[in-house]
Design goal:
alpha/beta; Rossmann fold; 2 domains; 7-stranded mixed sheet
Length: about 290
């Protein structure tokens, strides 16, 4: 993740983007699999019969119908049903579509939103964690900046909606949505996140013990010098009441908005995890 100084200096990106062909192939795969998951089994079997019939009808003497060939035929049939266009059309429309996706308003976020100021600092492949349905739009915006986003929520309908929206927007190659039980159970995820975005509304809905357990685990999963962005939910629940969980962290300055923000609504809070060297020094002091 770029610092404010690196961003202003237009520093070179450290990681290359996936090729457009790779992104297109992943987009096709996700749309097809999403369609398969939405239809009943009997309809899927009927599609398979139709696809097999089409393949055999092309040249029965030349084709040896294998399971792989049948699967490819079903996928092609689904692509036609979904009206998915070819790579050249997708490639030409990609720059305009991605530029629109990087506008906060595309995801119903205000320009002054905390994550709208952080997203341009994300580099391709940066691991980012987004926690809670109130921060759902933040996850989409960060994926549009090519971060590797992991989105967590306890509501299966929210997780399924996120997966569907991401597939439609051709962002699936940078996004995973997982169902969790906050304060009780999180999936086995690798950690090392450079940015963790947390919905304050989700935190406020937990018991004190669950909240402490969740934030402790999220802090453990954060890379040294990584950031935690606590953002208000749609109801305006602010994060200031949770600052006590970050007494050993550094309160970071909010990114500039480019315009004056009027009114008293909270933009959120930003905390930085101490770097490894600082942590080691603190541990030595404690031992002494």
């Amino acid at each position: 993740m770029l610092s404010q100084q690196q961003l202003l200096a237009t520093a070179a990106r450290r990681r290359p983007l996936r090729s457009l062909r790779q992104q297109y192939d992943l987009y096709i795969m996700d749309r097809v699999e999403q369609y398969k998951n939405q239809i009943p089994r009997h309809e899927l079997m009927r599609l398979a019969d139709e696809a097999v019939s089409d393949v055999r009808g092309t040249d029965a003497d030349q084709y040896f119908l294998t399971e792989l060939l049948a699967q490819e035929a079903v996928d092609e049939l689904i692509k036609r049903r979904l009206g998915i266009r070819g790579f050249e059309h997708w490639r030409k429309s990609y720059p305009k579509r991605r530029a629109a996706q990087r506008e906060p308003i595309h995801w119903n976020l205000d320009d002054a939103h905390l994550v709208a100021g952080l997203a341009p600092r994300v580099e391709p492949g940066d691991p980012v964690l987004v926690v809670g349905g109130g921060a759902e739009s933040c996850a989409y915006l960060l994926a549009a900046y090519d971060a590797e986003v992991t989105f967590l929520d306890r509501d299966i309908s929210v997780v399924e909606r996120a997966e569907s929206r991401i597939a439609e927007e051709s962002l699936s190659c940078t996004f995973d949505a997982l169902l969790v039980q906050f304060g009780q159970w999180l999936p086995c995820i690798p950690g090392g996140f450079i940015l963790v975005v947390i919905d304050a509304g989700t935190l406020s809905s937990l018991s004190p013990g669950e909240r402490r357990e969740l934030l402790t685990e999220l802090q453990r999963l954060t890379a040294p010098a990584g950031l935690h962005a606590l953002v208000p939910d749609g109801a305006g629940t602010g994060p200031e009441g949770f600052a006590g969980h970050y007494t050993s962290w550094v309160r970071e300055a909010m990114p500039p908005t480019g315009r004056r923000v009027r009114g008293g609504a909270s933009r959120g809070a930003l905390f930085g995890k101490p770097a490894a060297e600082r942590q080691e020094s603190e541990w030595r002091d404690i031992r002494a």
